[in-house]
Design brief:
about 120 residues, mitochondrion, single chain, ribonucleoprotein, structural constituent of ribosome, mainly alpha, flat
């Protein structure tokens, strides 16, 4: 099983009990902030939340596929390359006019869907 296949699995199917954790502390139970005082709103929580779903040093079963290899441990988020966090996002093509990359990619997707539909109808 490749590393990407492990990433593509939904967290519900992972065999380890890794829970999403948060490095931010809970907001203060201050009446002034809840009532809308003159304080600035806090920064978005998305920037402070970790990127991975496992804390560091969590055992990742199923990732070690070599014989005799010890258990694979999760690393801290900072040790992974930046491109890893964007690998599952869909690719966005800039619209560069007729005959451009975006149009070709759209045609390919439509053609693949037509082939899938035709093959499905042949099995009925």
């Amino acid at each position: 099983m490749s590393f990407l296949q492990v990433l593509r699995r939904s967290p519900a199917t992972w065999r380890h009990t890794c829970l999403r954790y948060s490095s931010t502390s809970a907001p203060a139970a201050d009446g002034a902030t809840a009532s809308g005082s003159s304080k600035k709103p806090a920064a978005p929580a998305a920037a402070a939340t970790p990127l991975s779903s496992c804390p560091a040093d969590t055992v990742l079963p199923g990732v070690n596929y070599l014989k005799g290899q010890g258990p694979v441990l999760a690393k801290p988020d900072e040790e992974y390359p930046e491109w890893l966090w964007t690998i599952l996002k869909p690719k966005v093509y800039t619209d560069d006019g007729p005959g451009g990359k975006a149009e070709r990619a759209q045609r390919r997707l439509e053609n693949r869907q037509k082939i899938k539909d035709r093959n499905f109808m042949l099995t009925q």
